[in-house]
Amino acid sequence: MSKLEFKSKSLDYDSTNSKKTHIILVDDVGSIVHVYLDESVIDLPNAELYQQAMQKHYDINFPRKAENEKIDKVQEQIAGIDSAMDIIVAFAVTTKDGMIASTYKKIASVAKPLTAGKRYSNGDVVAMPYPFDTNPKWPKDTLTLFTFVMQESEGYSYKSQKVEDMLRQGTLTMVMPRID
């Protein structure tokens, strides 16, 4: 199979009788591919027309693969944002003298909850409902930040244990806001 190359462009009518930019792609064994783009792109450089024509050809002839590649790109971007958010959350909990309550609540709202089956490391931050009803300034079930505390070489696999049990065991520690 040979690579398709740009051969020519013109303004023509497509099968629906609409005026379009007609791109002809050819390869070195005589294959010809006709691609119709919007009329307005006729003045673009040939290299850009080639890219648009190839993309349209690809989208039409390999729709699932093209869609999957787009989904993969979005998932990569989300993973990057997710990693950045983890860094921001970890940085925020190290704030000296505690975060003010409004900032704390925003950070807690974007921190991830405990996930069953996930392995956590020292310093990982999660947000879960406050498990106690003994603090009048911090009611039970208020979204609260917790950090994992363990040796650097250790890890902790979460298996749906209660937060209060993990606190008693010393696996988690609470990060509380500055309450004025």
From TrEMBL:
It comes from Streptococcus xiaochunlingii. This is DUF1366 domain-containing protein. The lineage of its organism: Bacteria, Bacillati, Bacillota, Bacilli, Lactobacillales. It comes from the Bacteria. It holds the Pfam family DUF1366. InterPro entries: DUF1366 (IPR009796).
